[in-house]
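Researcher: Please predict.
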Amino acid sequence: MITKIILLLSILPILYKLFFWLYTIQLKEYRWDRYKEYLATLQWKQAIFNKINHLEVLFLVLAIINLVAFWNTNQIINYTIVFFLWLYNLLFLYKAFKKKLLKPKSTTRILIIYVLFFIWWWIDLYFLNSDTYLKFSSIYVFLVLVFMPLILFFYNFISLPIVNYKKNKIINSAIKKSKQINNPPIKIAITWSYWKSSVKEFLSSILEQEWETLKTPENINTELWVSAIILNKLSDKYKYFVAEIWAYRIWEIKTLWKIVNHKYWFLTAIWNQHIGLFWNQENIKKGKFEILEKVIENKWFLYVNADNKHIEDYLDKINTTNIIRYWISSDKACAKSRILEIKNLNTKFEFNYNWIQETFETNLIWEHNILNLTWILAFCYDIWLKTEDLKKYLLNIKKPKNTQEIQVIKSRKWKVECELILIDDTYNLSVAWLKSGVDLLKYFNDKQKILVLDDILELWEKAWEIHHNLAKEIAENKQVDKVLYVWVNYEDDFEKGLIDWGFDKENILSTKSFSPLIKSSVILFEGKKAKTILDKFN
């Protein structure tokens, strides 16, 4: 009887582990190269070597001892296992009630893995329910719990033929449709290491005020998701289709240009973000610059950020009139801008392109936003948008959600009037993105400045060096008064860097000591995990 209770109580714990590891594998897009980078993080070590997992291994050993030494007659061990599984069930129900249960999104691949897993599971339960094998139930339960990641990787592997067949079918259908529906819509592709989503939103918010415009939503940028947008939404009613695209390996971007079948390319910035996937900086540049071949061959137009050293070094070797370079205040660029004034969270800047010299105002304030607006304006003039319309459109630029969103909270604490400014920049995170955010804090010199920071991931062996150097810049520039690091992978590296370069240890906060409402503050939230702190203010 007690062994049947063990099997019954194991259902929710097994589901808990199943959901968590499928969520993690899906988060890494089922790719071994991305998962391999995850294996090098403290986050993975905590997922594998936590107290619950230690107990699972312990009870697996006890179940084996129980079977070998006592041939299932030592009920004390079985009762202990029942108690542990009962607590495990409570944990599952608590997380489900608090909506903290991590579950993967329902996709074809996830459904296939579910089906394969549950077929195997119910076959095993059928045999375990017999008198012959019932004594093995405790060992079975804990083998499944301990080895769940390997089990799911196996099912992910055997599902590949079905998944790849369907994936290739969707991609080929998207390529065919994209070629059939052409001019209109005029297709635009935006790529490279960072600022892709921001640039896509800025451009789309201008174009959609003038014409019917379709864009890829949020940060959806992989070949399968872009294909789905083309198949489900793209039609000749649209004048423009703006697609954010991204590749993780050399040659992958070739598939994406076939899918989008675009006329215009926009390359935002390149750095060592995702170097863990490309292995080195040269592979990143090689992979991204695969598009030059098609630009020159098809006489497409390529707008590039010549302010980026990696791009400029590469372009010095290329000679074609199809490339439009944009920059902030440089004579080397075809299009350039110069910031005149930042006031009341608006920016006035001067823009020059060919024979055009105009002054614009926008509701964007970071310098890199003006840099990105530079090529957007050049493109808009190339498609013959009027200056008076552009001046109106720039005042209503839409940003990606959770990007540079500023919220002002006024409160009264301890009989003191406080004005708290929250800057939500949690949408994405890269080194350049973080530096731009910190640079913004210089406009709030009358307030205490606090940085809430998440990990920057997929930097591979460069991760320690990059986080340590970022800490050095923050400590030396003195643009941040206090820092709260909210995730685990590089917390020690970052905090050590702060202290090594003279940052006061007392100003390195913990979640328990985080109380910025004591006096007026501006708090910059960088990265997705930082949003967990931001949400506490709402």
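Model: The radius of gyration is 27 Å.
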